[in-house]
Write a structure and sequence with these properties.
The structure holds two protein chains of two kinds. By secondary structure, chain A is mainly α. Chain A contains 19 helices and five strands. In chain A, helix 11 runs parallel beside helix 17. Chain B is mainly α. Classes of the chains: A mainly alpha, B mainly alpha.
């Protein structure tokens, strides 16, 4: 058996088969089960290590050649794959409850497979190609058949496509910089082009305007999946860059630039979120703030970069899944998702509204919820380096908190004598309930993630070692 | 371990009540289960006397390199009086429940027990991170409970605003943590950075509605006497406990007199409104504000022990009064022990309240305290609105007064042996003057119209307390709104891509200019 075949080819083919041969009713269950099985396999069977099951010896070899390129997943990748497919399973199981499009599970599986390939491919610069391919597969999800794509979808595609040549070109330049590190001009040029590539990929300010636009025009569940998957893998890709190139890792100017970009994202995202009157756009801005926190973590320049980045990555998947599912349920009742239409819905959809508010509060870093421990860790690390940066992050998250409180106020302001009802289905209630319990568990006991993240620093030879 | 036992007794009993309510909704022994659990919890807290100080450390957050502060609970002579007060209040709420119509509602009792458990965790929290987590649990509990019990858009909005002020208070505690980390300190109560102290005061003050003065609580809730009393008082004491942990050395700032002044204004306002409140439940928010303000003044005057005294007074004296729903003359007179407990006279519960230096503010504090005492005496002797116990079963005639007397007994007990700072002569002259003024006010109340109850007052619950300050914030908020709207429209409009690329180029050139 071969790791890339199991965790890249199998889900890709499964997605393909589900798309063409499976009834849509069964796709969430089958897709979720496949994803969960892949996560459990990654957790139980170490890659490249022989396992004796009775008289049978099983060994999953780590790499495979494909058109002259190598795809390699090592022992240290196991927990990361388990996290990715575990979170993907959560998204797929929730599809039925969200009422999302038929193709979500199939294309979602293919997207996750491509993104997994992006962390396995060697030379690693080819990851940029795989990321763009994944971005292209998202388009059929965002734009329903026979419909004109909205402005948000087009911008998303433009920015993701522009990112690829920047990344590839910077890779070529970086090789030159490594050869002659004293050449300051080349270093600045390579750094700038690389920065631009990641700015387009991650949606750094002001390149993130497609996110709120998409939240307004596309399905919140699909957009939520996109906002989870792409930045997660892009952040891992960025960590790979930092790990490979010493001058990137050690340059104080680059660290400053990355942190500056992160602060701008957090502050602007928080400020814009606090002014919105559309609960979908608020989620978009929250995702922007979260990405800003990733960027800040990448710019820390301390030994804790990997730990803090992964502490942020895992709750993000859960928070966005819960939030997007709740939004999808609410959207069936209040299609526009504007404040005037969702007012008082807390009494008609208490579980969906409660889950949405908790997911939102979690992203603001409210204690007891999943987002708090990673933000605390990041804050403390930032405070040791620059109190001003920590302050601006505080301001950005305060903006997000204001958005949460405004949303809450609108939801609960029901008319006089409006009785409490329960309009969510059992499946929806169960999915949201599981998600909310997860938010509390990760918030109170973040150490449950430790088995997953303890070996992740080994993925990066130089970072955090 | 003992902390865990006490909390588990409360939480497990609450869980048992919920299970009972679901499986056997008409079970007659549910109340006995509730009272049994609360009694055992109270006894278990008494056993702390034999073991203190001791710790309860929860499994550490990992990775250890990132999370250096443990989730730690610590029982000492400071936490003990708070813990006894909270468990006694919980038991009294349940004992006096027999006089309330919701006698068969196990969910309310379960909520009361769970609140008691969370309260115990709050007062034993040994570092700000632990306290922050417990505060959040309390805030979420209060939010859900209030939203379930109020009606109409305006009242629902008030609940969210109250939650907001507490959340921002928690945010200030978090900021104090960041500040302390930036100064290279570990953020625990023992090594608070000097410039973090005032943020802690502001955090507690904001949560309590004192700094700045506002009423964080809506009085429209239907859960007024039983669970409502528990919620109000436990929530307040959970915020007050922070003040007891702030070392006096970290409060030396030029801002200290200013904050003391604000707290004095809140104490005077709270005391005045409490004196003139038409009934004890309407006046309860003012009672909380007034005592919280006196606690803050104690802390700012360099006497954290005074906070323990005022905190216990808030729960024990207030609890006895707010839970006294039935008409029994001797119980009404027993409640007057509360006036003694509030007086700061030697060996009373609050005798250690004014060991710090009040300076210029002393006369104002004396007046505020006197207003509080006079208001308490008036409310304790006011029998209107209380039900007659004759309509209750015979055993209720004995259980109900036992509950009230329990809290009165604890006032006396804690004044004598509650904590290391108890059994004090204290500032006896100041206490004497305060008592004389209080008696003067009690004498004058029926004679002077200005001291008589009013219904309207100039600080409404949550919404209008700081009209000017909130108005200022609102102007800034709308200005930011206009700016952000202009940016959004530009970037998302037809020429958005071009504008985006232009800003990106400016951004890159700005950053590369800064690169050597």
């Amino acid at each position: 058996m071969n790791a890339p075949l199991i965790w890249i080819l199998t889900p890709f083919l499964s997605g393909f088969l589900i798309l063409f041969f499976l009834h849509r009713r069964f796709s969430p269950l089958i897709g979720g089960a496949i994803s969960m099985a892949l996560a459990l396999t990654a957790l139980i069977f170490p890659i490249d290590t022989a396992l004796l099951l009775g008289s049978i010896s099983i060994k999953i070899s780590s790499s495979v050649q494909f058109f002259g390129r190598s795809f390699s997943l090592n022992t240290a990748d196991g927990p990361l794959i388990a996290i990715i497919y575990g979170l993907a399973a959560l998204w797929f199981f929730g599809t039925e409850a969200s009422g999302s499009a038929n193709r979500f599970v199939s294309l979602g599986l293919m997207i996750v497979a491509l993104l997994t390939a992006s962390i396995a491919v060697e030379p690693f610069l080819f990851a940029a190609l795989l990321l763009v391919m994944a971005a292209m597969l998202v388009i059929p999800l965002l734009v329903p058949l026979y419909q004109k794509p909205g402005k948000g979808a087009i911008r998303f595609l433009i920015y993701q496509t522009i990112a690829m040549p920047f990344i590839l070109f910077s890779g070529w330049m970086l090789a030159g910089v490594e050869a002659s590190p004293g050449d300051l001009g080349s270093t600045i040029q390579a750094g700038t082009i690389l920065g631009l590539g990641f700015a387009f990929l991650l949606g750094i300010f002001p390149l993130y305007n497609w996110i709120p636009m998409l939240m307004e025009e596309a399905s919140p569940y699909v957009t939520g999946f996109l906002l989870w998957a792409l930045p997660t893998f892009t952040a891992i890709f960025a960590l790979g860059f930092l790990d490979r190139y010493t001058w990137l890792r050690t340059s104080p100017q680059l660290s400053y630039t990355i942190q500056f970009a992160g602060v701008i994202m957090v502050v602007s995202g928080g400020l814009f979120a606090s002014q919105q009157k559309h609960i979908g756009r608020i989620m978009g801005y929250a995702a922007i703030v979260e990405t800003g926190l990733f960027v800040l973590a990448l710019g820390l320049g301390s030994l804790e970069v990997v730990n803090i980045t992964f502490l942020l990555l895992i709750p993000r998947g859960l928070e966005l899944a819960v939030w997007a599912l709740a939004l999808s349920i609410i959207k069936r009742k209040a299609y526009t998702l504007r404040f005037n239409e969702v007012q008082g819905l807390a009494r008609s959809y208490p579980i969906a509204v409660g889950a949405l508010i908790l997911a939102h509060l979690s992203m603001t870093g409210f204690p007891l919820l999943a987002g708090f421990p990673p933000r605390l860790a990041l804050w403390q690390e930032l405070a040791r380096q620059s109190l001003a940066t920590a302050f601006w992050v505080f301001v950005g998250l305060l903006g997000l908190l204001i958005a949460a409180l405004r949303t809450m106020a609108v939801f609960v302001m029901a008319k006089e004598n409006k009785s409490w009802e329960w309009n969510e289905s059992w499946v929806q209630a169960a999915m949201l309930g599981v998600g909310v319990i997860g938010l509390f568990i990760l918030g109170m006991f973040p150490q449950v993630l430790q088995p997953f993240i303890i070996n992740l620093p080994a993925l990066f030879e130089h970072l955090g070692q | 371990m003992l902390i865990l036992i006490s909390c588990l007794l409360l939480f497990v009993t609450a869980l048992a009540l919920i299970v009972l309510q679901v499986l056997q909704p008409n079970a007659r022994y549910a109340w006995l289960v509730a009272v049994g659990g609360a009694s055992l919890a109270l006894v278990s807290v008494f056993t702390w006397f034999t073991q203190i100080p001791f710790n309860l450390t929860l499994p550490a957050w990992q990775p250890h390199t990132v999370f250096t502060i443990p989730i730690l609970f610590h029982a000492d002579r400071l936490a003990l009086p708070f813990s006894l007060s909270i468990t006694a209040l919980t038991l009294t709420v349940l004992l006096t429940a027999i006089t309330r119509s919701a006698i068969t509602n196990s969910f309310t009792w379960a909520g009361t027990l769970a609140l008691g458990g969370i309260g115990l965790l709050a007062v034993t929290a040994d570092n700000p991170l632990t306290l922050l987590l417990v505060w959040s649990a309390l805030d979420l509990t209060e939010l859900v409970t209030q939203l379930r019990s109020v009606n109409g858009p305006a009242n629902n909005e008030k609940v969210v605003i109250a939650f907001s002020s507490r959340a921002i208070g928690s945010g200030l505690l978090l900021w104090a943590n960041i500040l302390s980390t930036a100064r290279g300190n570990i953020f625990d109560f023992q090594s608070i950075a000097p410039d973090s102290g005032l943020f802690l005061i502001a955090a507690a003050g904001l949560r309590l509605g004192v700094l700045p003065l506002h009423l964080p609580y809506s009085s429209e809730s239907t859960l007024r006497r039983g669970f409502g009393t528990s919620l109000r008082l436990v929530s307040a004491v959970a915020s007050l406990v922070l003040l007891a942990h702030i070392p006096a050395g970290s409060l030396t700032s030029t801002l200290t007199p200013f904050l003391t002044g604000l707290a004095v204004v809140a104490a005077l306002y709270g005391g005045w409104m409490w004196l003139r409140a038409p009934d004890e439940l309407t006046g309860r928010p003012h009672w909380v504000i007034s005592l919280a303000a006196l606690s803050i003044i104690s802390a700012l005057s360099g006497n954290p022990l005074g906070v323990v005294a005022w905190g216990c007074a808030l729960v024990l004296i207030g609890g006895a009064l707010f839970l006294a729903a039935a008409q029994l003359v001797w119980v009404d007179y027993a409640l007057l022990v509360g006036v003694w407990s509030l007086s700061s006279l030697p060996f009373s519960l609050t005798a250690s309240a004014w060991l710090g230096n009040l300076g210029f503010f002393m006369p104002f504090v004396v007046v505020a305290q006197a207003l509080l005492m006079a208001g308490f005496a008036r409310q304790a002797l006011r029998s209107a609105g209380r039900i007659a116990l004759e309509s209750q079963p015979g055993w209720a005639n004995k259980i109900y007064p036992a509950g009230i007397i329990l809290l009165v007994f604890f006032q006396l007990l804690l004044g004598l042996m509650g904590w290391d700072g108890a059994l004090q002569v204290g500032a006896w002259l100041q206490a004497l003057i305060t008592s004389l003024i209080a008696f003067g006010l009690i004498w004058a109340t029926p004679r002077l119209r200005v001291l008589n109850p009013v219904r309207a007052h100039w600080v409404n619950a949550t919404t209008s307390g700081l009209g000017t300050v909130y108005g200022g914030f609102w102007v800034i908020y709308r200005l930011l709104g206009r700016i952000s709207n202009a940016i959004t429209v530009t970037l998302e409009g037809e020429g958005g891509v071009m504008w985006t690329l232009l800003i990106l180029i400016l951004f890159v050139s700005f950053l590369t200019q800064g690169t050597p």
